[in-house]
Sequence to fold (90 residues):
Amino acid sequence: MELDKESLADVVVRLRRAQGQIGGIIKMIEEGRECADLITQLAAVSRALDRAGFKIIATGLEQCIMGEDAGTEQARVDRLQLEKLFLTLA
Fold:
């Protein structure tokens, strides 16, 4: 299933923000920052990545339900694949 790039524009923004956070975490490690600060930032990045993944899956499900292929065998297969991906993140 190929997803609409315009629908995922906010996902790209989230991922770029997470990319910046990861760079910040690497810098914090190199500077010898406190463990608690590192874990706090890692948790924030983890949440951002999870949200991006869930948004991708939600967009895919929406396209399966609302798209021109809705109700077809291919839409059913795509939905099952997206469900499996969702459970991978959950």
About this structure: The domain at 6-89 is CATH 1.20.58.1000 (Methane Monooxygenase Hydroxylase; Chain G, domain 1). Residues 35-66 form the longest helix (32 residues).
